[in-house]
Design brief:
Strand content: 5-15%
CATH architecture of one domain: Orthogonal Bundle
Distance between the termini: 52 Å
Order of helices and strands: HHHHHHEHHEEEHEHHHEEH
Structural class: alpha+beta
Length: 299
C-alpha cells in the first residue's frame, strides 16, 4: 500500500530564523492594529523591520499558531487565534517558558514543514548539517508531492538549525547576537562548535505539565478518543515524546505528575490489563495554557 504524500512548504520564512522579540511585536500588532498584522511597508516601518523580515514574521506568527492559517489567495490579514489572544493577555512579552513551549509545539505540528519532519521523522541523535540535509532530501523524495532543489533543502535545514541549535550549557551566549531565537532556550538541539556537529537532546528542564497535557489533548482530538495508551504518547506522530524529545521514562513521569496535579480536572491514569492509559477532559490545548498561569499564581 502506497503511503499518502504531503505537499511541503518551502521558503516562506524568507530564510530568516525566528528571532527574539519578533513574535511579541507581531502579536501585539495583530491584536491592536485595526487591520491586524499585514506584512506591508507600513508594518515593516512601524516595527523597524525590512520588508522581507516583515513577510518572514507573518509566516512565523502563522506557523506558531498565534494567528489563524489562511488561504494564500485571501488578501485580508489573518485573525489572531485563540492561543494568540491568550498569550497577548497573559504573557505579552513572552517572559514565561510555557509560551515558548506552546509556540514550539504548534510549530512542530505544522504539516508539510521541515519542523514537522525533524521532530517526527529524523532519527539522527548526533549528526552533521550535511547528514541532516541528506535525510531531509530522502524524506521529500519518498513523501512529498512537490519536489525541490538541493539549495532550497539546505536553506530549510539551515533555518531550522539556527532556530533551535543552542551552544552547550558551558559555552557563553553572545548577548549582542540579535539573531538568537527564543526556541534555543528549550535545549532541544545542541550545537558543538568544536566538532561542528549537532545533537538532538532531551530538555534539561522539565516540560511544563500544561504543555504536556496540551500535546496529549491535540493527540486525543486527532484520534477521537479522550483515553490514550501511554505507548501512543511515545510512538504516534506529533506525540509528546516526539514533539518534546522525551523518552519513555520521561513520558511516564509526566503522565504521573499530570494525573496528580489535575485529578480534579478529570486527568487520570488507569491500567487496562497490562496497558497504562491516560484520560483527559474534552478541553482544548489553549485551556491548558491558561491553567498554567492559574497554577503558578499569575493573573
Amino acid at each position: 500500500m502506497t503511503a499518502m504524500k504531503t505537499k511541503y512548504e518551502f521558503g516562506r520564512h524568507e530564510t530568516f530564523a525566528l528571532r527574539e522579540g519578533w513574535l511579541d511585536k507581531g502579536l501585539n500588532r495583530s491584536v491592536t492594529h485595526p487591520e491586524g498584522f499585514r506584512p506591508d511597508l507600513e508594518t515593516a516601518d512601524d516595527l523597524g523591520l525590512g520588508s522581507r523580515m516583515a513577510k518572514s514574521l507573518a509566516y512565523w506568527l502563522e506557523a506558531t499558531g498565534l494567528v489563524e492559517r489562511v488561504d494564500a489567495r485571501n488578501k485580508t490579514a489573518p485573525a489572531t487565534s485563540e492561543l494568540g489572544q491568550l498569550v497577548h493577555a497573559t504573557d505579552p512579552h513572552f517572559e514565561y517558558s510555557i509560551t515558548s513551549w506552546f509556540v514550539h509545539m504548534m510549530l512542530v505540528r505544522r504539516p508539510g514543514s521541515v519542523w514537522n519532519w525533524f521532530f517526527n521523522d529524523f532519527r539522527g541523535h548526533s549528526f552533521s548539517r550535511e547528514a541532516c540535509i541528506e535525510e531531509f532530501g530522502r524524506h521529500l523524495r519518498e513523501h512529498s508531492i512537490n519536489q525541490t532543489t538541493l539549495g532550497v533543502m539546505q536553506r530549510e535545514v539551515g533555518c531550522l538549525l539556527v532556530t533551535y541549535a543552542a551552544p552547550p550549557a558551558n559555552e557563553p551566549v553572545d548577548p549582542e547576537d540579535i539573531s538568537v531565537s527564543p526556541l534555543r532556550s528549550l535545549g532541544l538541539v545542541v550545537k558543538h562548535h568544536d566538532t561542528g556537529r549537532f545533537e538532538k537532546a532531551q530538555p534539561l528542564d522539565a516540560v511544563p505539565v500544561e504543555a504536556f497535557l496540551a500535546s496529549v489533548a491535540l493527540l486525543a482530538k486527532e484520534t477521537g478518543s479522550q483515553t490514550l495508551p501511554l505507548s501512543d504518547l511515545i510512538g504516534m506522530r506529533n506525540s509528546p515524546a516526539k514533539v518534546f524529545n522525551l523518552d519513555g521514562d520521561r513520558i511516564s513521569e509526566a503522565a504521573q505528575f499530570a494525573s496528580e496535579t489535575y485529578a480534579s480536572e478529570g486527568v487520570k491514569l488507569s491500567l487496562l490489563g497490562s496497558v497504562r492509559t491516560i484520560t483527559l477532559p474534552q478541553d482544548g490545548a489553549e485551556i491548558w495554557y491558561a491553567r498554567h498561569f492559574t497554577r503558578i499564581g499569575v493573573h
